[in-house]
């Protein structure tokens, strides 16, 4: 029998999904439960290690934090830790797909849950797009290393291709004119990942596990081998003096460290992706909390060590913005290491893309099951593969098209803004649930919850406040669009409109 749900106010935007309804959803789930404790942890590491190490370190250190990038990673890691502890308690209570969206729906209310779900769409979709473009950049670097030089118009979006062509012409090179350009590698890799995800979670997890082993080994290699080329003079000054640009934004100094923390925060969303896979975990109440905390701790330590080695090998203002780790070893004459790091970066970014797109479809699935999105599209499960195949193909289509045709600049901050708000909301929601439902079974309990929740809310909102003004403005526009969609469609189609 299905669990009976309590009567809810069908008119209020603050209406909450009864916890009994979650139990009914879990019993009816068509997803395969195949993920083990370490399989979940591997998914978390797969999402975290990639863009942060191989891409964002150069931008964050060069333009914002200098050698103090290690402090930025530490700051972002601490803010994530507070949220992770709260996530872990929620994941043990509600082991369902949907992540922060599902948790908020059962505690804070529908409008907040919708906004969090809407922002998670931004987080995962734009995150996957950014990673696809970064993947293309490293793939192009690999082709150059083996002597293959594909035309600009085949490796870049139209705007970026023209910019590169003009720069090369100014440098004296002859570049033929072109009227069409597309980032073909970014387009194709998204569809490879989409195919893996449609085939099934077991196949996706197996692919991810192999990639995780390769890139974790490479990151450890970077730390150990790079340590022999560290020059302590590159760490001086460890915190460069503040510089204010023409827009009034402060670079370096404490403000620069905080801004850099907001930028690299994008690289920490892996543990959030773990919670989206609860519906496919064998023992979600115990294994999801473990995987959330374990993946965050492992990756934070690796990030801090890599940032210290990288800024020790190359002076911060000379770091390459696109491929900082590979370029650092190239500057030391370690060509063989450049091959290894470039290949690992390609593999690493592939797994990040895989987990992000995986998480995106599970967010859609959770929202569609609640009636907030069309069920026939977003909640349709393939009869053989047991995956949400329609939404997976839709996500693949959107991500591949945007990655192929659009120049992606500073989008990591936009992804971070959605994540930061979701994390702050979860910290408040788990505290609220502890007060409202003190006798609820909690296989995992967040220690010192009032302190952890308060610090989590403050830390995440503080980092959000220090994001660039244009990022915050774009985020407000996205949220406004989400509110419009909610009132035009989701509120009227919500399952909570039906008392049965």
UniProtKB/TrEMBL annotation:
Membrane topology note: Multi-pass membrane protein
Compartments where found: Membrane
The keyword Transport is annotated on this UniProt entry: yes
Keywords: Membrane, Transmembrane, Transmembrane helix, Transport
InterPro entries assigned: AA/rel_permease1
CC annotations in GO: membrane
Record flagged with keyword Transmembrane: yes
Ranges annotated as spanning the membrane: 38-61, 67-88, 100-121, 178-198, 210-230, 250-269, 290-316, 336-359, 391-408, 414-435, 447-465, 471-489
Predominant location: membrane
Gene Ontology MF term list: amino acid transmembrane transporter activity
Name of the molecule in the record: Amino acid permease
């Amino acid at each position: 029998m299905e669990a009976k749900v309590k009567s809810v106010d069908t008119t209020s935007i603050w209406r909450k999904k009864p916890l009994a309804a979650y139990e009914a959803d879990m019993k009816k789930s068509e997803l395969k439960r195949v993920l083990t404790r370490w399989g979940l942890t591997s998914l978390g590491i797969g999402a975290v290690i990639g863009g942060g190490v191989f891409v964002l370190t150069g931008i964050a250190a060069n333009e914002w934090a200098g050698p103090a990038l290690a402090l930025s990673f530490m700051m972002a890691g601490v803010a994530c830790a507070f949220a992770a502890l709260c996530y872990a308690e929620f994941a043990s209570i509600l082991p369902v797909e949907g992540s922060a969206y599902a948790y908020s729906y059962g505690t804070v209310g529908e409008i907040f849950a919708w906004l969090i779900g809407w922002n998670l769409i931004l987080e995962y979709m734009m995150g996957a797009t950014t990673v696809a473009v970064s993947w293309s950049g490293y793939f192009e670097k690999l082709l150059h290393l083996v002597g293959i030089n594909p035309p600009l118009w085949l490796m870049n979006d139209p705007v970026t291709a023209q910019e590169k062509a003009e720069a090369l012409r100014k440098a004296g090179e002859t570049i033929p004119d072109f009227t069409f350009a597309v980032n073909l590698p970014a387009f194709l890799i998204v569809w490879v990942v989409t195919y893996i995800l449609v085939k099934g979670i077991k196949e996706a997890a197996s692919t991810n596990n192999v990639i995780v082993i390769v890139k974790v080994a490479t990151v450890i290699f970077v730390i150990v081998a790079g340590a022999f080329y560290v020059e302590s003079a590159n760490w001086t000054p460890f915190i460069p003096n503040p510089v204010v640009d023409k827009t009034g934004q402060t670079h370096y100094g404490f403000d620069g460290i905080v801004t850099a923390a907001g930028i690299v925060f994008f690289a920490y969303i892996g543990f959030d992706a773990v919670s989206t896979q609860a519906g496919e975990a064998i023992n979600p109440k115990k294994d999801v909390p473990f995987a959330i905390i374990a993946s965050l701790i492992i990756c934070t330590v690796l990030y801090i060590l890599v940032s210290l080695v990288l800024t020790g090998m190359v002076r911060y203002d000379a770091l390459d913005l696109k491929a900082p780790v590979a370029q650092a070893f190239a500057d030391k004459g370690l060509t063989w290491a450049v091959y290894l790091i470039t290949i690992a970066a390609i593999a690493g970014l592939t797994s990040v893309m895989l987990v992000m797109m995986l998480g995106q479809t599970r967010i859609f699935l959770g929202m569609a099951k609640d009636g907030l999105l069309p069920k026939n599209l977003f909640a349709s499960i393939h009869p053989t593969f047991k995956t949400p195949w329609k939404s997976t193909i839709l996500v693949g289509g959107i991500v591949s098209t945007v990655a192929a045709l659009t120049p992606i600049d500073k989008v990591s901050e936009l992804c971070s803004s959605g994540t930061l708000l979701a994390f702050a909301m979860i910290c408040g929601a788990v505290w609220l649930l502890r007060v409202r439902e003190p006798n609820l079974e909690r296989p995992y309990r967040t220690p010192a919850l009032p302190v952890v929740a308060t610090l989590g809310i403050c830390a995440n909102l503080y980092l959000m406040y220090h994001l660039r003004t244009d990022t915050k403005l774009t985020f407000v526009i996205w949220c406004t669009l989400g509110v419009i969609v909610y009132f035009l469609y989701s509120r009227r189609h919500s399952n909570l409109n039906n008392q049965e």
